[in-house]
């Protein structure tokens, strides 16, 4: 299983490297195979088509974000700050190939690509669910549905802004995300009285007065 994951990652890395020298549109699987000394059947054993490499690239960001979510620094944050950090770690993982990532997204948005656009919506939903799990959001029923919708909108706005952000360490993206999350918190407080529901870490922060900046 570990060897399979390593080879999958090597295939993705080779495709990204080729795209950096030209474009994602120009990448062909036979070139990826040649770069790694593999056959097309070796590639097909892991990826049924080139588009699956895009999902594998985003899977790398999901893994990095969830790996960060178990660190003591992450766990000590209040829920809203966890969500901010989770999204920024996810984006930072993709930053090494921002140009290629942008080309991947633009390719999916081209007219007539419904066969990848519908699965792309499911991809967005899965990533948002992992953001919520990392932030330990536990709302149910209507509140959960509204939070999911709001988080999805915030994530997408931030993602598309990030793709054009040339500031150091994506500083402007982080500031935008902070404003969006603050606005969502204020709106939710009006509706529910309190959001996010304090977690154990959040309650500890409240008791020390550190959550005032959340």
- Our count of helices gives 11
Helical residue percent band: over 70%
Look at the structure and name the CATH superfamily of the largest domain: Tetracycline Repressor, domain 2
Task: Average the pLDDT over all residues and give the rounded result.
Answer: 89
What's the helix-strand series?
HHHHHHHHHHH
What is the CATH fold-level name of the largest domain?
Tetracycline Repressor, domain 2
Largest sheet entry: none
Shape: elongated
β-strand percent reads: under 5%
Number of strands: 0
The structural class is: mainly alpha
Name of the top-level CATH class of the largest domain? Mainly Alpha
Termini separation comes to 40 Å
Uncertain parts: 205-214
Gyration radius, to the nearest Å? Answer: 19 Å
Proper CATH architecture of the largest domain? Orthogonal Bundle
Count of structural domains:
2
